Amino acid sequence: xxxxxxxxxxxxxxxxxxxxxxxxxxxxxxxxxxxxxxxxxxxxxxxxxxxxxxxxxxxxxxxxxxxxxxxxxxxxxxxxxxxxxxxxxxxxxxxxxxxxxxxxxxxxxxxxxxxxxxxxxxxxxxxxxxxxxxxxxxxxxxxxxxxxxxxxxxxxxxxxxxxxxxxxxxxxxxxxxxxxxxxxxxxxxxxxxxxxxxxxxxxxxxxxxxxxxxxxxxxxxxxxxxxxxxxxxxxxxxxxxxxxxxxxxxxxxxxxxxxxxxxxxxxxxxxxxxxxxxxxxxxxxxxxxxxxxxxxxxxxxxxxxxxxxx
Length: 310
Hints:
By secondary structure, the protein is an alpha/beta fold. It folds into 2 domains: 10-250, Phosphoenolpyruvate-binding domains (TIM Barrel, Alpha-Beta Barrel); 270-300.
């Protein structure tokens, strides 16, 4: 059934994510910037979506990834993606928004929203994007992160919900050895997947090659746009996040069309670069919604099969 009725259960999405990570091919997880772009990505055949903090922050409050988004704001962003698509959504939950108690609340709130996985990182507050060089990047100690992960795993309401551990050790300049030590501890604590953001391809390849754990590895393509899914697979990754590509593509298209409008005062040439209004309405299910409403209105009228049965 079409939106606004979700067509899949959260547990089914969570099981599907586990299947995707266990499959031979690398699963691509692009990041939508809103509900409509999430629907489009799903229709294009992507089986999972990344609810990333950077794009959520830009889309929701118009600022960089500087730890300014609250838990409820990020939850609202991820919820909109889940509700619009019923798809596999991996939610960026930053550092869990505090200590072990805050992590517990965060996990259950995101679970209720229907996400398939929740990602918690080992950055110390105040946190920010790992690649913002003008801001100092500090980590909590390994034991503190293990405590957060154990809290997250213990309080989850559905055992199929995945808890992913993210370590920013490479981005913080800690090196491959400490990265491996940290993610080994996180995997031993029960993390369902490991994600390590990295800005250097040699470091990315080195830690993945040295990893001998059974827990699947996830990479981000943010710093490596030319790395293909096949190359990611060869390095040992099970999933590849592409956090901002959809946002960057959309902003570029908007800029080109609207600059021309400013220059010429006309939108006559914009058509070939834009979806039609009909395509837009089809994307967001307007006709399906009207059909659904009419079906139930007919069912409630006197003399209908449904009303007669009661």
